[in-house]
Design goal:
Length: 206
């Protein structure tokens, strides 16, 4: 008599090329793949930074789901905001200097969105975590020293809070300590349980 067929585990994909998001998702101890979405990440005219993050998180998940049908896909995006304007990744030392000068002694917001699509390509949910960050008043020497030491040119806001960037800050207000790094894991685990994943440490689904 043959044994009952077992359901194959769901395939999980992180729709991102970000090493920061990959390292965060690894904390959940779930097997997953990474596939980079190919989308235009430009904000739309008049679009609020938080809305840009939400739209792009879902767009990234959908773009990867089309390429990899039958998988559960996580899409995420982060947009930094200062005075209502989005701050992109600096990409160069000169632009990073300009960003940190503008941010010195100021409060800015980091909007990090996540969306999860199930194996049928349907969105099981979306979430947005907004982190408020206040920087110290920074001298030109401090800015230069930090940038030369860490070279955070691929980070919106020109600082890595998981590294030396924490020394630039006065305060962080957040409902999820991982959101500022690039993937809000509290919201992500909620959405993964909704998609049917049993997470290590709990063994249960929502």
């Amino acid at each position: 008599m043959s044994s009952p067929a077992r359901h194959a585990p769901q395939r999980l994909i992180l729709g991102s090329s970000s090493t920061y998001r990959r390292e965060l998702l690894q904390r959940l101890r779930l097997p997953f793949e990474c596939h980079s979405p190919s989308i235009d990440e430009s904000p739309l005219p008049g679009e609020a930074p938080s809305d840009t993050a939400r739209r792009l998180a879902l767009a990234k998940a959908r773009a990867v789901a089309v390429q990899q049908p039958g998988a559960v896909v996580i899409g995420s995006d982060q947009v930094a905001e200062l005075d209502g304007q989005a701050l992109g990744k600096p990409g160069s030392h000169e632009r990073a200097v300009a960003q940190l000068r503008a941010m010195s002694g100021r409060q800015l917001q980091f909007h990090t969105a996540v969306a999860v699509l199930d194996a049928q390509g349907q969105c099981v949910g979306e979430a947005l975590s907004t982190v408020r960050v206040r920087l110290r008043v920074l001298s030109e020497a401090e800015i230069e020293h930090y940038l030369r030491a860490e070279q955070p040119y691929d980070c919106a806001g020109s600082a890595k809070v998981e590294g030396l960037g924490i020394t630039l800050l006065e305060a962080v207000e957040s409902d999820d300590p991982t959101a500022l790094i690039g993937l809000p894991l509290i919201a992500t685990t909620t959405l993964l349980r909704r998609a049917g994943f049993a997470l290590p440490g709990t063994g249960t689904t929502a």
